[in-house]
Amino acid sequence: xxxxxxxxxxxxxxxxxxxxxxxxxxxxxxxxxxxxxxxxxxxxxxxxxxxxxxxxxxxxxxxxxxxxxxxxxxxxxxxxxxxxxxxxxxxxxxxxxxxxxxxxxxxxxxxxxxxxxxxxxxxxxxxxxxxxxxxxxxxxxxxxxxxxxxxxxxxxxxxxxxxxxxxxxxxxxxxxxxxxxxxxxx
Length: 186
Fold this sequence. Notes:
single chain, globular
């Protein structure tokens, strides 16, 4: 059996014309990918009408010192569940390290720390996630639709949300304007 191509720490970029509007220009940070499946957090689309401070208030937390950054559409699975992709200078009980990208926490303690001004120095807050069962992502990667880019923390934490897709392709040496969304004819 061929060894699976594990993509933890990579950014999955949806190719033009992927065929699923939920993933148009998607940028997904793959946080876990092993023989059991994969979990990624969408970092390329902001949710409309909610910011970090509003989310904290909805959770009954005093926003305190938290800046009002965007809340991202993490993916179609469990859209009411929150995740924070963050720098490795903070860690909680359930924090996992994501090679090349930082760390991921899915418990409320990271949001409390952010509100209190003692959380990670860089972070992205998302609702929902993208998930793949055993072998599913490996199979999807054999077909057109996704491109695996290097995970670059400077793109995650230093690039505005709407620019992450294009910036990720450019960092790979690809001009996204040249990507074709349709099939050609010979």
